[in-house]
Amino acid sequence: MIELREVYYSYDHNITLKNISFKVREGEKVVLLGINGSGKSTLLKLLNALIFPTEGAYYYKGERVEEKSFKNKDFRRTFRREVALLFQNPEVMLFNPTVYDEMAFSLRQLGFREEETREKVEYWADKFGLSPLLKSPPFELSLGQKQRLALACLLVLSPKLLLLDEPTAHLDPKSTGWLVDLLWELPCTIITSTHNLSLAEELGDRLLVLGQDHTLIYDGRIEDFLRDEEKLLKAGLLHRHRYRDKGGYHTHGF
Ligand SMILES: Nc1ncnc2c1ncn2[C@@H]1O[C@H](COP(=O)(O)OP(=O)(O)OP(=O)(O)O)[C@@H](O)[C@H]1O
Ligand SMILES: [Mg+2]
Questions:
Q1: Is residue 115 part of a domain?
Q2: What does the alpha-carbon distance between residue 215 and residue 38 come to, in Å, rounded to a whole number?
Q3: Which of 44, 66, 111, 131 is the one with CA 20 to 30 A from 219?
Q4: End-to-end Cα distance, the chain
Q5: What does DSSP say about strands 189-194 and 206-210: parallel, antiparallel, or unpaired?
Q6: Residue 176 CA, ligand 1 centroid: distance in Å
């Protein structure tokens, strides 16, 4: 479904993604791990075509994704309809007067009739526990509720590729468990970033890891990576420190 070939991305002169190549097949659930600043959000923005590779190539369903592809109306419409990104900060995604309008926004933009829009909004609001809040202004919601709303706004469009940037960051354990179950129910391809090691295994079955040097340092089964302490230490995902009084070491993840 997607393929990256030797992709580099730089903000000004700072390389943030370095020589990244991988393919993702339709229906895969992929987890993206990496420490703060390793480039997870940048990679997800690139997959959502908000930014384009400085070098290398990105293909979506065999078509090259670059600035000029978006001049083609059909490509633009298909890509924007099929590929959806949940931002790390849900607040930047919410700007409508009510939760209902927020969820209806993209459907209305795409020309859905109000009746069909209402049906979809009510279905997803119910699934996300947002029905009692449909008339509320989004800014009055708690951060966790905003995160759920931002995701619901994407799902009303039934995306084919769902990109989630730390979707559980503001959720309590119960909502996190609920979200994990929901993600496995969705028929789409999903790439989820996190630095929560204990959650990684639940969010997917394949793992991509960005290293501190912004290269892809692992692509494979999640279990194998999580049981390899040296790999975790190399990725900076495990912290080893000396016991203050006993002279030994202990490690902990994030
Ligand atoms: N708009 C920008 N302009 C300049 N530099 C940026 C911009 N966005 C990100 N960066 C830089 O790119 C690097 C990677 O940032 P990115 O947000 O992709 O990391 P991340 O892995 O998502 O981190 P986190 O876990 O903190 O969310 C960082 O060094 C950051 O300072
Ligand atoms: Mg990030």
A1: no
A2: 9
A3: 66
A4: 31
A5: unpaired
A6: 25
Compute the distance from residue 237 Cα to the ligand 1 centre, in Å.
Answer: 17
Tens digit of pLDDT at every position of the chain (254 positions): 999 999 999 998 899 999 999 999 999 999 999 989 999 999 999 999 999 999 999 999 999 999 999 899 899 989 999 999 999 898 888 999 999 999 999 999 988 999 999 999 999 999 999 999 999 999 999 999 999 999 999 999 999 999 999 999 888 889 899 999 999 999 999 999 998 888 899 999 999 999 999 999 999 999 999 888 888 888 888 777 666 655 555 555 55
Q: Quick check: is 141 in a domain? A: no
Residue 191 lies in a domain: yes
Does the beta carbon of 214 sit less than 6 angstroms from any atom of ligand 1? no
Q: What are phi and psi of 24, to 5 degrees?
A: -130, 130
Tell how far the Cα of 203 is from the centroid of ligand 1, in angstroms.
22
Closest-CA residue, ligand 1 atom 24, reads: 36
Does the pTM exceed 0.90?
yes
Specify the CATH number for the domain of residue 170: 3.40.50.300
Contact 234, 227 (CB under 8 A): no
Residue with the smallest CA separation from ligand 1 atom 25 is: 36
How many domains are contained in the chain? Answer: 1
- Structural domain including 203 reads 2-93+159-252
The answer to the question of residue 121 being in a domain is no
Atom 6 of ligand 1, nearest CA residue: 11
Distance 89 CA to ligand 2 centre (A): 9
Residue 168 and residue 193: Cα distance in Å, rounded? 10
